[in-house]
Amino acid sequence: MSYKRYELGFNLIELMIVVAISSIIAMVAIPAYQDSVIKGKRTEGQAALVNMANRIEKYFYDNNSYVGATATGLMGSSATESGYYQLQISVATATAYTLQAQPAGNFDDAYCQTLTLDHSGTKGVAGGATKPASECW
């Protein structure tokens, strides 16, 4: 009669392998998740700029000039809905403007920094952005 010894549980090496695999997965997954969160917040700034551009174009249609667009209350609030961005209008001439959305509060978009949109629909970035506008928009 032979007795078989059954071991229950995990030994230290098996546990270390599981911890190592979990660490590798976390090193890949956490930065990817953080990038997704930043992209989601960036969408708020993009939408606010497009909305503001539409309202300024309506103002131009009614007045044949962008001058005075900042004084008419077009902005409503200078912050986006969730407060991730501060909006700014700068009217250069009667036929040109530039809109900017700068990260605000505790939100920091290190890659794209300030999003810009001008009268011709050109989308850009400013403020030390490390990614090109094509990746930020």
Q: Any idea what the shape is? A: rod-shaped
Largest sheet: number of strands, sense, barrel closure: 4 strands, antiparallel
Number of strands: 4
Helix content: 40-55%
The gyration radius over C-alpha positions equals 25 Å
**Could you name the ranges where pLDDT drops below 50 across 5 or more consecutive residues?**
none
Q: Averaged pLDDT, please?
A: 86
Strands in their spatial order, largest beta sheet: 1-2-3-4
Question: Concise description?
Answer:
This protein is α+β, with helices and mostly antiparallel strands and 137 residues long. The protein has helices at 12-63, 133-136; strands at 85-93, 96-103, 114-118, 123-126. It has one domain (12-136).
Task: Explain what this protein looks like in three dimensions.
This protein is an alpha+beta fold. It has one domain (12-136). The protein contains two helices and four strands. The protein has a four-stranded antiparallel sheet with strand order 1-2-3-4. A hairpin with a 2-residue loop joins β1 and β2. The chain is rod-shaped.
Question: Keywords, please?
Answer:
single chain; 137 residues; alpha+beta; 4-stranded antiparallel sheet; 2 helices; rod-shaped
Helix/strand layout:
Elements: H1 12-63, E1 85-93, E2 96-103, E3 114-118, E4 123-126, H2 133-136
Antiparallel strand pairs: 1-2, 2-3, 3-4
